[in-house]
């Protein structure tokens, strides 16, 4: 079967970069199609440390352009999506004779405060950990700390919201759709796409192709396009552990390890603490990535150097790992490889744009830069527009999440405060599209566990391409942390029934 349209742009990859480019392009008037071989954000884009940050440690590697761009983007993205992005204060404990001298940290934080046009985020300050509550969970050897601002993001939700907005603007968005071949013919790209559920193959044509395959970007070039000896990215594994809550403070911690690596301990989903990340080279297939026992030991031991109460493997309730596709700049260590992005156009026939590297914080600017190259290749349409835009559900004041929760509780008094807060943080003003005219909790249909009900699952299937329980529990929501294995199996059975009935 073939689609008779000739798209201006065909995007391969449904991570943050692919969805961001598709959204920006659709908003400028390009005709766009996007194919993701799995679920949206099922690779790197849901495996991050979930920060909207400048990258304090990147200053050590003199990546001033990247840090400045990222710092400037923090408040832009927060305003775009105040439901899935919010400010977070970080506590950086300092120990005399530690990894980095105090003057170097102060200099880095001074640059951090002044490089990026900070307006709403509060400035850095010094803490006395002997009196500040942030010192309570830490070992008494840490008497002083620096506190600075960055942001938190629900990464997978940010990806799917970009996909939704692209679709709302006319893009053809396909999940579980693998590009099996792409070839140049008669000045166009001829693209074959296999539906990974039905097995059916469709053909599409486009004036330009965007390869935003993330860790699979080289595989796309060598597989679907038949290129040989392709090596553009350095794959680096980052793993995280989720443990039972280690502290009550709303602030996060930035810890330094004697090996010069850094890691974070971050409040997570109310009841937990997220600890990560690791950094090590990875050579296997990205789909097979999972945390190793060595990484578990590394994170537990590193955190235990700071927390008075040790972190042990028995504390772990969940782990996740992802592969970061860093542009291969020849750095000797994984943690030293550049986090900047590189965009390369191959104009030998119908143009191809390859996207290498990138990070959550700079995805919007990466998309704008990609559209500059797309305009040069096939003709410009529209002008940059995303800086003042809102993602679906984000049409409320940047500091208005608490107000939205109160409004939701007033309109739906049967919700618990916890349930209302989660719905606002997932869906913002779209929460009402889930609850509609329900008068009681029973009106939301079957209860699957946690605060997950049938009305929400239906919304995710119909509006956000959710197909499996994993899509719902670990990417669209984090309710997998609160459901038993039996409850999760019940959700899977329900969703399989919905698929059969469709």
From TrEMBL:
Its EC number is 1.1.5.3. The keyword Signal does not apply. InterPro entries: DAO_C (IPR031656), DAO_C_sf (IPR038299), FAD-dep_OxRdtase (IPR006076), FAD/NAD-bd_sf (IPR036188), G3P_DH_FAD-dep (IPR000447). It is an enzyme of class 1 (oxidoreductase). It catalyses: a quinone + sn-glycerol 3-phosphate = dihydroxyacetone phosphate + a quinol. It comes from Neorhizobium huautlense. Residues 8-364 form the FAD dependent oxidoreductase domain. GO terms for molecular function: glycerol-3-phosphate dehydrogenase (quinone) activity. Its cofactor is FAD. Belongs to the FAD-dependent glycerol-3-phosphate dehydrogenase family. NCBIfam families: PRK12266.1 (NF008899), PRK13369.1 (NF009906). It comes from the Bacteria. The keyword Lipid biosynthesis does not apply. Keywords: FAD, Flavoprotein, Oxidoreductase. Pfam families: DAO, DAO_C. Residues 386-485 form the Alpha-glycerophosphate oxidase C-terminal domain. This is Glycerol-3-phosphate dehydrogenase.
